[in-house]
């Protein structure tokens, strides 16, 4: 479980240059830290590093907009 | 029998008010009268596509049957046990889905302006809904599909002529539910406010800019033969007319949807206060630009990054911006000014990203304050108005059209 959390946080760190371990509920889109490019990169990284297959259709901005929501989604899809 | 452009005149609104009252009373007391909603939809479709327009009505019916059969076939293919989910079946389905639209868009370009007989008002907006449903079916996220409900989605009359473009899964969840009384009352309140704001936008502001000021600018520019300040005047009045007319229409479409308990997404969010061009596309004709983002741009980026077409992520993004906006240009119509409009916006997105990267790198040297923000809004606004001038086709009439005076 913690493994997923750490991997997601490290992917987000690579993408945005920010550490979210203490800001799990920050909205990534409102603060413009993620855009469509970053999102695609995130989906590809999740595929590579965690084997989670999340097609773009599944990606719904309101369900994937904070680090904690992403972690929950990934655990659900795993 | 006469016909009505949706939201085009007061009579249409009177028909709406009368027809929606039973549906609204039902929703207020926890019932959605689906058969009645279907009858109302049919009535309003006949108002628009019947009478002297009956030929486009026939075109709509044929198109509708064709698309429902196509999506049903693809859905059954995908939901079969061990569906092979072949790429070519998917690509073929998407091609078949956009084929009628392509014919309609290309016909005027090759037959000197003549409209195709298979066209009808709103064909592109229905095509967007079809393509999106096929894509989500391919990804396996549309698990339940019912041809009748899909039909309701495609022909949802408040948005049929010009959007906003809803999403199948979102629409179905609203259509199948009945909002709680308190939520429905909130929806009605917001809906009514939107409709009245729409009156202000469309019948006061768009009328003033489009029918009072714009013809004067147009006349001045025509008389000046060549470049004149009237062209600049035309540029701003056209942009204002375009916005208030389309945003007004969208407010009606969203407002009426709300009264029917369907939360159709918003189309505009103060586009003229955008700080950059990306911000602009998050605020202007949002359901279209989000459609392009989700079903073209992101998929293209995903494909290119997965197959490592380009080494750098920046090149991938830039190529995809240009392709994405060019497709949007072609979608508007096969004329040089629509295509140039798309190309300009594609390039602007590239420049915007480059600048943002540069700015981030040199944060300490580049000032950022209220004044630079205002300046950014000013530049974005003027660039956008300039692209609308191209989009309007007025330069084409002015410099390449048959001379009228």
Report what the structure shows.
The complex is a heterodimer of chains A (78) and B (405). Chain A is mostly helical and 78 residues long. Chain A has helices at residues 2-16, 36-50, 67-77. In chain A, helix 1 (2-16) packs antiparallel against helix 2 and helix 1 (2-16) packs across helix 3 (67-77). Chain A is globular. Chain A starts with a helix and ends with a helix. The relative contact order of chain A is 0.21. Chain B is an all-alpha fold. Chain B has three domains: 10-178, no CATH class; 182-259; 271-400, no CATH class. In chain B, 73% of the residues lie in helices and 0% in strands. Chain B has helices at 10-28, 34-49, 54-79, 87-110, 123-138, 147-154, 168-175, 181-224, 229-259, 277-281, 286-306, 313-332, 336-361, 370-392, 394-400. Chain B is globular. Chains A and B meet through helix 2 of A and helix 11 of B.
Summarize, please.
Chain A: The modification O-(pantetheine 4'-phosphoryl)serine is found at residue 36. The complex is a heterodimer of chains A (78) and B (405). Chain A is 53% helix and 0% strand.
Report helical residue fraction of chain A.
Answer: 40-55%
Quaternary structure of the protein? heterodimer
Question: What is the number of independent domains of chain B?
Answer: 3
Largest interface: A-B, 12 and 17 residues
Largest sheet of chain B: none
Task: List the secondary-structure elements of chain A in sequence, H or E.
Answer: HHH
SSE class of chain A = mainly alpha
Termini separation of chain B: 37 Å
What is the N-to-C order of secondary-structure elements of chain B (H for helix, E for strand)?
HHHHHHHHHHHHHHH
Kindly report the average pLDDT value of chain A: 83
Strand content of chain B: under 5%
Radius of gyration of chain B: 23 Å
Counting DSSP E segments of at least 2 residues, the number of strands of chain B comes to 0
Shape of chain B: globular
CATH arch. level architecture of chain A: Orthogonal Bundle
Number of DSSP-assigned strands of chain A:
0
Query: What is the CATH first-level class name of chain A?
Result: Mainly Alpha
Spans of at least 5 consecutive residues with low confidence of chain B? none
Overall average pLDDT of chain B: 94
Helical content of chain B stands at over 70%
Q: Number of helical segments of chain A? A: 3
């Amino acid at each position: 479980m913690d493994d997923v959390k750490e991997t997601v946080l490290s992917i987000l760190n690579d993408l945005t240059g920010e550490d979210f371990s203490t800001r799990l509920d920050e909205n990534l889109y409102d603060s413009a830290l993620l855009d469509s490019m970053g999102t695609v990169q995130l989906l590809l990284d999740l595929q590579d590093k965690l084997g989670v297959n999340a097609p773009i259709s599944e990606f719904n901005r309101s369900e994937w907009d904070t680090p904690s929501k992403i972690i929950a989604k990934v655990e659900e899809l795993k | 029998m006469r016909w009505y452009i949706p939201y085009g005149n007061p009579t249409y609104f009177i028909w709406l008010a009368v027809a929606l009252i039973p549906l609204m009373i039902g929703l207020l007391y926890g019932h959605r009268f689906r058969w009645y909603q279907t009858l109302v939809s049919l009535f309003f479709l006949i108002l628009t596509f019947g009478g002297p327009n009956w030929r486009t009505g026939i075109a709509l019916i044929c198109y509708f049957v064709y698309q429902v059969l196509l999506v049903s076939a693809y859905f059954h293919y995908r939901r079969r046990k061990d569906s092979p989910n072949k790429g070519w079946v998917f690509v073929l389905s998407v091609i078949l889905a956009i084929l009628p639209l392509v014919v309609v868009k290309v016909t005027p370009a090759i037959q000197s302006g003549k409209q195709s007989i298979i066209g009808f008002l709103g064909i592109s907006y229905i095509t967007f809904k079809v393509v999106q449903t096929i894509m989500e079916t391919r990804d396996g996220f549309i698990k339940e599909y019912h041809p009748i409900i899909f039909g309701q989605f495609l022909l949802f009359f408040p948005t049929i002529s010009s959007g906003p473009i809803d999403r199948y899964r979102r629409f179905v969840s609203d259509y199948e539910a009945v909002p709680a009384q308190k939520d429905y009352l909130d929806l009605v309140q917001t809906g009514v406010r939107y409709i009245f704001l729409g009156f202000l936008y469309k019948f006061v502001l768009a009328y003033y800019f489009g029918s009072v000021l714009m013809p004067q600018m147009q006349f001045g520019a025509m008389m000046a033969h060549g470049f004149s300040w009237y062209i600049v005047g035309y540029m701003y009045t056209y942009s204002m007319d375009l916005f208030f007319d389309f945003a007004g229409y969208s407010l009606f479409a969203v407002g009426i949807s709300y009264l029917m308990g369907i939360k159709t997404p918003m189309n505009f969010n103060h586009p003229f206060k955008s700080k950059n061009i990306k911000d602009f596309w998050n605020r202007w004709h949002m359901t279209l630009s989000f459609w392009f983002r989700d079903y073209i741009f992101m998929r293209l980026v995903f494909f290119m990054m997965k197959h490592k077409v380009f080494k750098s992520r920046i090149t991938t993004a830039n190529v995809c911006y240009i392709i994405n906006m060019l497709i949007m240009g072609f979608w508007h119509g096969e004329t040089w000014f629509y295509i140039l409009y798309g190309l300009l916006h594609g390039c602007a997105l590239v420049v915007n990203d480059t600048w943002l990267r540069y700015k981030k790198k040199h944060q300490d040297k580049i000032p950022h304050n209220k004044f630079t923000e205002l300046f950014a809004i000013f530049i974005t606004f003027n660039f956008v108005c300039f692209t609308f001038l191209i989009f309007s086709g007025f330069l084409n009439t002015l410099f390449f059209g048959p001379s009228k005076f």
